[in-house]
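User: Please check token order:
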Amino acid sequence: MEFLGELILILLTTTLLGQLFSRLNMPAVIGQLLSGIVLGPAILNWVKPNDIVSLFSEFGVILLMFLAGLESDLDLLKKYFKLSFTVASVGVILPVIFAGLASYAFGMKPLEALFIGIVFAATSVSISVVVLQEANQLHTRAGTAILGAAVVDDILAVIVLSLFTTFSHEGGKSGLTDNFFLNLLIEVVYFGAVWVIYKFIAPYFMKTAEKLDVNYSVVIASLVLALAMAWAADFVGLSAVVGAFFGGLAIRQTPQYKEVNSSVSAIGYSIFIPVFFADIGLSMTFASFVKDIWFIIVMTVLALLSKFWAGKYSSELFGFSKGEGNIVGAGMVSRGEVALIVAQIGINHHLFPEDIYSSLILVIIVTTVISPFILNYYIKKQNTVTE
């Protein structure tokens, strides 16, 4: 039962550091991220990454994105789809170019450099969602653009990864099969199924659940639907968080969504979501910091700038103010679990040198930890301008 002691440490530390950063008028999520760094191998080494923590963490990010879907306005997402697609497309292209060229300059082979660029192409919006929620910015134009772009970004990143592994002859499956076009067809079928669930199945499913004489039957039904969509997304080669987000959107248009939101928030934010944030920090070590210091610095700067510029200037092309553009750019910076998964695929199939794996993970985690600071700064700056 060693995990119980680790869970107590994680929950206490995330709560205390979260409160500390709230008192400093900063997002509590920053303290939760730092708690993993403090407790983990990087500093105290009291909690080590393990399968149970990872399981709680995976469930936490699924619940987080399900809640984001529950709180999203589908009409706004439709309205800003072109913007979201543009932000996501440029946000995939720039990191591939910037990080790829930099990796090549550090002596890597062209295919290895290209794959490292792909690692930094994906955005993890889960951190940004919490910052936007705390600042009441999730329903704004910028917040909607970030959510929409993150979903499109994930799809594009999977397509780019599939293309690379299919045509590079380096091996590795990013989805069901090695055939890129079959993968693409399966993903199209998945989104067709999502539309059917949204339009027909979710309302009927929730209405039926409401009639059951079982405690929290509506909440259970919503979680079954969300988890099924997350599992299906993962099965076809997409990120599970995309499926969870669409599950939240499907429940959002039912009369029961407020009850679901209240109950799932209690479940998620009391245990699983804090573990998810702490788990990101637990992966951090400074073992390769001195040896690869210049690689880490250069890749971190390029990882930050490529996503930030993509979000900022793409949104400004669609009429967003400079302040809103800064928020969109900052909201796209975080890499998180998506980049970690892509990096894991790469190391398993020898797509880049093993000796830079730790440094690559460190860059991913640093960009993830820095992102809420940047986003919070630009939100406050925009609020000051509009007051």
Observations:
- The CA atoms of residues 323 and 382 lie 5 Å apart.
- The two ends are 52 Å apart (CA to CA).
- Residues 170-176 have pLDDT under 50 and may be disordered.
